[in-house]
Amino acid sequence: xxxxxxxxKEHELKATFQRTQILEVIEKYGHIAIERIYEEVSKIHASxxxxxxxxxxxxxVEKGVLTEVPIIGQKSKYEIAKEEHIHLICTSCxxxxxxxxxxDTSEDTQHVAEVSGFSLEHRQLNLxxxxxxxx
Length: 135
What we know:
Layout: H1 4-10, H2 17-29, E1 32-33, H3 34-44, H4 50-62, E2 66-69, E3 77-80, E4 85-90, E5 96-100, H5 103-115, E6 125-129
Parallel strand pairs: 4-6
Antiparallel strand pairs: 1-3, 2-3, 4-5
Helix pairs in contact: 2-3, 3-4
């Protein structure tokens, strides 16, 4: 289990009950929308508002604790930040799966950036299609 207090501290954030609960829910589900985070956290802390969830999510994204995964035609999902990877997004059931960003793909994206005179700082690759269950 992840030490959420240490993770938050490493990113210069206080380890509040709300933040640790949000991180716990995100880790449990992997990729999850804010409204779903709110549903899960409010089961534990009923007085917590949706606005508080939004505020904390935005702050944790800005500090690099979380990564926003934008999904075409849907609300973004969030995950705990980790090494760069590819998201395989099912257009039928909306499942999001992680795939390791291999050396060749990493080098290809770096090459595209360099040839374009673009200074690559971060990459996020989202591939859309049908998962095994929905095929």
